[in-house]
Amino acid sequence: MKQFFAKFSRLTWVILAVVVVGVIAIFFSRSRTGTEPLFQTTTAARGNLVASIGATGSVRARQSAVLIWQTNGIVDAVNVDVGTRVSRDDELASLDKTSLNQSIILAEADLASAKRALEDLLNSDTARAQALVAVDRAEKAYQKAYNWRLELNGKIDIIDTYYEFGIPKVRKYKGYADAETIADADENLALTEAQLDDARRAYERLKDGADPADIAAAEARVAAAQSTLNLAFISAPFDGTITQASPSVGDQVSTGSPAFRVDDLSHLLVDLQVSEVDINSVFVGQSASLTFDAILGKPYAGKVVEVGQSGDTLQGVVSFTVTVELTDADELVKPGMTAAVTVVVEEIKDVVLIPNRAVRLVDGDRVVYKLVDGQPVQVKIELGSSSDTTSVLIGGDLKEGDLIILNPPSQFNGPFGG
After folding, report:
1. Residues of the chain above pLDDT 70, percent
2. CA-CA distances (angstroms) from residue 179 to 72, 183, 187, 189?
3. Which helix (H) or strand (E) holds 225?
4. pTM tops 0.90, yes or no
């Protein structure tokens, strides 16, 4: 082996050394100029910081009602199908009269009679006229009793009846009334005064129309008859859309059996469970975005309409109910669908943003590395509000437009510089 190396001259070794150094230089040169960049960078630029919280929930209508039959009978008519839009009090279905209980059938006659009585009460002037006549009579009776009592205070004509030979004789003479006569007159005066007061009160109630108490009683009789009659019908309780329909003409139904479901699809809501850690960041009016597994590639907008004020504890975790309303719902969104909801709890506009992945902690200071003439330079920064991906730059040696290194190495040595 020694003889082998001895064959090489000093010049040969020099040439070999130059070749090795050249190969190494070519290797590092390719590392710096290859297709893969040495550093991933981004520009410190202005934008809007959006902080949000996310949760899932199920879509529900603002109003929803399952309508059931209130009595037994045979379905006579069905006026709506699934998807029909209805207004409040629209008749959706009815039962055959001949299949109904007798009390329901008679309620139709009771309703007509009660309506007629109410109409007479509202439009007739007879009661007021009668009350006025009663006041006039009571005033005359009181005046007569008053005058008689006044006469008893002095001498009065006393009429006496006696019998002579079995024949009644009448004689008159002046005298004073006895105590019993005065007491009777006082009682009669008090009675006529009370009757006059009653007559006047009755007239006061009727002088501007029917007595409100009588009207209320008549209206109650109308409502009671109508309520009984309504047992034979299913009506819409509010404006909405028929989302379920069970009855068909000829069906035999019983009390409590389902008929229809009505939903107000013009207002769709999603209830979210938000952690107690985040609930104080959520307020009514904040915007939200929603996506659905059942509706691919189409986001929807919403807003917070209600924030729960008391929490529920489930398995040791406290959460609050937050309600979000869709503001651009269409026919694709249906009650019961699962929605992924993101609520924007904070938005700061026109600020310089720093990617969180570029920030490092060095000796207790936050730093980033910016690229200057192809070399990384460490700079201190101060950050404000943050989201999951970015933070607001509020101070430090970095400015808008600087190139920030997203993948700085843990140590800068060797070929990367000091």
Report:
1. 81
2. 74, 6, 12, 15
3. helix 212-229
4. no
